[in-house]
């Protein structure tokens, strides 16, 4: 299965007093990768705004494997694991690799789409579902 991948370098503001990547920075990197995946597949923030939909992460699980230090190059991948039949709910996995290729962290997320006016869970519009299906095909 193909995955979407982004590369980053860990900077001073990403580390904690122990000089390794702070816990919330893992989420910053995965969030950025997920949004870049969406943007690269036509699901831009402008489009979501026009469609009055947004995405909400309801559950996040981090499994730390190895520490990441300041100035290390890392790669963060993104893979869609699941969509409900109506595309309202989804799950995905990120893997964060150190520059030596060793797995440092696995981040699993679950979420759903919301209507930005009603602030309730919603089935995404057909235009968005079409783009989601196209993005899923690229990962096969």
What is the compact description of this entry?
Helix content is 27%, strand content 39%. It is an alpha+beta fold and 140 residues long.
Question: Can you lay out the helices and strands and say which pair or pack?
Answer:
Blueprint: E1 4-9, H1 23-40, H2 45-51, E2 53-64, E3 73-83, E4 89-98, E5 103-115, E6 120-121, H3 126-138
Antiparallel strand pairs: 1-3, 2-5, 3-4, 4-5, 5-6
What does this entry look like structurally?
With 140 residues, the protein is of the alpha+beta class. It has three helices and six strands; from the N terminus they run βααβββββα. Strands 1, 2, 3, 4, 5 and 6 form a six-stranded antiparallel β-sheet that branches. The termini are close together. The mean pLDDT is 94.
* Secondary structure tally: strands: 6
Structural class: alpha+beta
Tell me, briefly, the overall form: elongated
Number of helices: 3
Order of helices and strands: EHHEEEEEH
Please give the alpha-carbon distance between the first and last residues: 5 Å
Poorly predicted regions: none
How big a fraction of the residues is strand? 35-45%
Main sheet summary? 6 strands, antiparallel
Calculate Rg over CA atoms.
16 Å
Helix content: 25-40%
Mean pLDDT: 94
């Amino acid at each position: 299965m193909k995955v979407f991948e982004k590369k980053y370098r860990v900077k001073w503001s990403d580390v904690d007093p122990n000089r390794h990547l702070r816990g919330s920075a893992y989420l910053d990197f995965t969030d950025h990768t997920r949004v870049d995946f969406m943007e690269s597949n036509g699901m831009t923030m402008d489009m979501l705004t026009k469609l009055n939909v947004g995405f909400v992460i309801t559950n996040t699980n981090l499994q730390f494997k190895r520490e990441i230090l300041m100035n290390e190059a890392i790669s963060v991948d993104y893979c869609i694991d699941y969509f409900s039949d109506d595309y309202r709910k989804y799950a995905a996995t990120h893997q964060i690799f150190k520059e030596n290729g060793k797995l440092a962290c696995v981040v699993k997320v679950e979420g759903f789409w919301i209507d930005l006016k009603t602030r309730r869970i919603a089935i995404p519009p057909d235009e968005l579902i079409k783009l989601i299906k196209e993005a899923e095909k690229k990962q096969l």
